Amino acid sequence: MASRSLPRRSAATALPVDDDRPLHERVRYRGLLMVAVMGASIMQILDTTIANVAIPHMQSALGATSETVTWVLTSYILASAIAMPITGWLADRIGRRELFLAAIAGFIVTSMACGAAQSLEQMVVFRFLQGISAAFIAPLSQSVMLDINPPEKQARAMSIWGMGIMVGPILGPVLGGWLTESANWRWVFYVNLPVGLLTLAMMWALLPATRTHDRKFDLFGFSMLALGLASLQLMLDRGAHQDWFDSIEIWIECGVAVACLWMFIVHMVTARAPLFNRAMLADRNIVTAMGFMVVIGVVMFASMALLPPMLQNLFGWPVIDTGVVLAVRGVGILASMWFAGRMLGKIDARWMVGSGLLIAALSLWQMSHWSLEMGMQPVIISGVVQGLGMGLIFIPLNTMAFATIAPQFRTDGSSVLNLLRSIGASIGISTVTTLLGANIQTSHEDLVGHVTNSSTSLLDPSTADRFGIAGDTAMAMVNAEINRQAAMVAYIDDFWLMMWVTLASIPLVLLLRPPKPGAAKASVADMGH
Fold first, then answer.
1. 15-215: which CATH number, 3.40.50.150, 1.20.1250.20, 2.60.40.3080, 2.30.110.10?
2. H or E stretch including 22?
3. Straight-line distance from the first to the last Cα atom of the chain, in angstroms, rounded to the nearest whole number
4. Cα gap 111→107, rounded to integer Å
5. Going by C-beta distance under 8 Å and a sequence separation of 6 or more, which residues neighbour residue 472?
6. Which positions of the chain have pLDDT values less than 50?
7. pLDDT value at position 251?
8. pLDDT tens figures, 4-47
9. Helices of type H across 300-348
10. In terms of DSSP H, where are the helices of 207-283?
11. DSSP assignment, residue 213?
């Protein structure tokens, strides 16, 4: 693939863009640049969860219904899924530095627009535009973190990047709840302004430019992938509201998703210049990492979606207490990521990934033994254990995924991995939410069958109507307790399911291969291209 040098100099380094030195040798203030990259990454990942807490407040302020207000979340997810696959092509065409700066600037502007929205229609449009900007930030931040560090420090760079990616969604609900209660729901978006401006200024000053490439755009491949992903996301987001396949809408979305994604796969195999280079997809590590990213999305994000409503509705915990207790799992993530970063190169990374999966499964086994009589301690312990497992999976996995592919594929590879993690999260959340509703009904029916005059010594259900209002009140209390117990059983069933999904993914570790000694160094010469 022919390349042409940009006819200008990098504003950050005053070095020609066609400087053939690796990118990590052209960065003057690597530490500050890493802070800026992480600032952009954390700002973007926080926004995937921080707005969830403010949804009820948006609903009343924007005059939306409980069903239509969900488009505030759906529009953001749809836009990210559609835009993320073209990150690599755009970075090659206009330059990675230019795309990164444009994405951050766009994210700031659209965040301000979301905060100022006066109607649901405006909010949905602004959130869609915000999702497009956000789609480029995650993969660009990962590829930049790899390229600005020499090979011997890339594992540490991935551990730092992974901390932001994993801890951000956990802190989002806490920060969102605090901003909503202490100020206003609009500050959930306005908070991006100071962080975004500081990050943008640092990136403008410190990030060197890279070469651009004449890369043909695969319009048909992108169209099929975008339409397929959009249909899949719509099906997953709206399935529960539309009663899944009892709805014609869900059948249409499922059919479009299957047809378009199948045509995209066939096109990828047969086209001369597909959207993603087939040489990248021939790498066993990156393809295996894609499978793991779906599992991480299912286990991490699905459990995070289940826990807040469970702790608030069944246990009666306040929003802030719930957020703080769940945020404790960040301690486990930080500890295991620090350990993984230090041990990479000394311990086979495959052992760390396998151990992380076992530890994550252990945490889900602990959660499957919860009861309505427990306090905060079991939630904290299982959260820390799950954090330890996720940290051990994420860093070695990302390191192995990018250790064996050519540097020019890093942006494309990062965009695919981030996309699949997002899809895994959507699949996981939709699955556990649907099963939760179905299992609550099933468990309620089972428990009601055991409510007899012998099991309720103070009240005979068959004669409760004789006591008028008092009898009705007593039966309502019994029914409320049955609902609580049925919901707890349904949550436990979801935890069991996620545990088995985690255990079933462990054999994928056998497909990974550690990088050959010196392979990373041999490929560094192309980093600045």
1. 1.20.1250.20
2. none
3. 12
4. 6
5. 464, 465
6. 1-16, 471, 517-529
7. 92
8. 444 444 433 334 455 556 565 667 777 888 888 888 888 888 87
9. 302-309, 319-327, 329-343
10. 219-238, 248-270, 278-281
11. E
